[in-house]
Specification:
2 copies of one chain form a homodimer. Chain A is an all-alpha fold. The first copy, chain A, has helices at about 1-25, 30-40, 45-50, 55-75, 85-100, 110-115, 120-145, 155-175, 180-195. The interface between A and B is large, with 47 and 47 residues. Chain A binds a DNA duplex through helix 1 and helix 3.
Chain lengths: ~200, ~200
DNA sequence: AATCTAACCGACCACTTGGTCGGTAAAAAC
DNA sequence: GTTTTTACCGACCAAGTGGTCGGTTAGATT
């Protein structure tokens, strides 16, 4: 069973490096050779573990990207607290991480989605599914927030969710080459004022 | 001077086709040969008119993309009317155009910005400049809206502008593979309620 | 000790990439 | 009517591209 460990270790190394390079340079602009050179591995090793470049990328989505989205955007909003506060906080945290990342190139899912949208149905489906999971979680949270008396009932949870996701994807792109500190501060201030429009004020 | 006309015509044909293919498939995923094949022109023709693929793309930005942004997003908000109404309307129109476009791949500027961000400083600067122009126009409009009594004074025009731009960029990406009709409707409803937070109510 | 196999090597393949360059037909300039 | 210039052709180039395949080696299995 030691062999299996080595297999997993090598595949994981490849995925991590592949993810880095794809994220930095884009999928089409990164060759398999680029990744292999950076890993000091050979073509043989690559095609022993993966069927194709596309297959390799899909494994990266499933193993690394899904996990990242879960840990930064989904898990932080689980629970029974005030949805509006929790959402704002999770997004602020995600933006802070980006801000502190010297090599930030934007929201991973979004960048790849842009690159594959309408060009590779298989891959873009995987990516859209990830966004969908995030979306569903926000919607569920908001619905629960209504019954718990945090959120006013007449807003459309679906509409709010996709508005939040949209604005997040956009600000992440702007932050790449702009002043991330100011952009984040401004963004959060506006997000807050937007979220405030749907706060349920308790009856006095 | 007839020659100059032909020159311009050919260059323009190339730019239009190049724009189409780059937009549909991405810059790195579209070869010069692809464009030439679609135009039934030769390598010689291409490199007679343009120095390089990059030079060609820059000419597309300057001739086609800038113009498109101006006509759809900037000119519609010029004037002395209520900024909040005007902005909402211009964005709704832009989204409607996208919705009716069978071959929509998202917001042109944003897609290319994502592809070049951190990878080609020259090109991403051009693209960021376009966004900057849009941003400045929104900011100016909002400031004027304050003095004209449409917009409450204590909001940050900069923050509002980048929030609007962010959300627009994001929703355009979501619309590519989602249900554009519903997404647009929902988005506009949320944008409206966001913009409503900064309406100056006239003193009774 | 002999065998087998997982993991990896690297030469090789057909094809594509952005870009060059000598040529050419037709129109403009003289 | 000759020369020059414009606009374009297409063969060619070096450097990649994703992918194949016959080998090699270290360690597990027998």
């Amino acid at each position: 069973m030691d062999k299996n460990l080595k297999r997993m270790a090598t595949m994981h190394r490849m995925q991590v490096t592949g993810m880095e390079l794809f994220y930095e340079q884009g999928y089409y602009n990164t060759s398999v050779d680029d990744i292999l050179k950076s890993l000091e591995l050979s073509k043989g090793a690559f095609y022993y573990h993966f069927q194709s470049k596309e297959d390799f990328f899909i494994s990266i989505i499933q193993n690394l990207i899904v996990q990242k989205v879960y840990s930064t955007l989904i898990e932080p909003i689980e629970g029974n607290k005030n949805p509006l506060t929790v959402i704002e906080k999770s997004i602020d945290n995600a933006l802070q991480t980006a801000e502190n990342n010297e090599m930030d190139y934007g929201f991973v899912v979004h960048n790849f989605l842009t690159e594959f949208n309408g060009r590779n149905e298989t891959i873009s489906r995987y990516l859209r599914d990830i966004l969908k999971i995030w979306e569903v979680n926000i919607i569920t949270l908001l619905q629960k927030g209504k019954t718990d008396g945090y959120v006013i009932r007449h807003v459309s949870s679906e509409a709010v969710a996709s508005f939040i996701i949209s604005s997040y994807m956009g600000i992440r792109t702007l932050m790449v080459e702009g002043n991330p500190r100011i952009l984040r501060y401004n963004y959060i201030s506006q997000l807050r004022s937007y979220l405030n429009t749907m706060v349920e004020r308790e009856l006095a």
